[in-house]
């Protein structure tokens, strides 16, 4: 039985589709709307190339634009791979030209070439979608608040030569309102099934409730925390460095948590001081502290028990 690889290039309103067979021959290429009707039409056209069990749907992780497609494929129990766009791009090497039809073909070919390595995707639990949307909304509010804060600074300079008291008062009220909204969103996050707060919320979403990463080392690579050697023969001996292809958001959150941990956690505070005394740079130590925090989080999830700070316990016992 032939296997068919269906590459889908997703945009807000349309889906460009390319169907390849396992001999790398193009069976069909077409465009449908990114709606229930359009996706059903795509599935019906794909059925002309073989039965459902022989189909391998593949598309880039485009956030909300791909949710309807993933949902309908799951509803019909069709196998699909949702892959990071950068992963597909890097696998193709140097490419000439770009359009939606070509992209759909490239995605289908990627699925064919990497079928043995790809893991079938599945939508996250409803609670993770809820957390993810809260985090997205919180980030949006923070960006808007930052814009108002920057405007406040600009108007402060203007106030030295002109009366801008009305504008200043309006901006201050907007910032206060945004502070209240951000606090409200953060409160809602903490109430979702006992989620601790920002770091825990991001960890739940990015690991898909710890289903996407089997161990902390892989997650550290994904977050850009794991340093890699940078040498070649005897002539190039650079410093170890983390990957630039990292998730910047989670790394920022983890760095913030690590900076707080070296103040309040006695074990990590002692670790930071020891490394600092050895001449290590602040960011290098904080990066290592982030790794330690990730190992703690994964250990807690694996054991299904709360974290016990043995250092603090020993201090109380002595």
From TrEMBL:
InterPro entries: Transp_IS110-like_N, Transpos_IS110, Transposase_20. GO terms for biological process: DNA transposition. GO terms for molecular function: DNA binding; transposase activity. Keywords: Coiled coil. Residues 161-188 form a coiled coil. The keyword Glycoprotein does not apply. Residues 187-273 form the Transposase IS116/IS110/IS902 C-terminal domain. Transmembrane segments: none annotated. Residues 6-151 form the Transposase IS110-like N-terminal domain. It comes from the Bacteria. The keyword Secreted does not apply. NCBIfam families: transpos_IS110. This is IS110 family transposase. It comes from Chryseobacterium pennae.
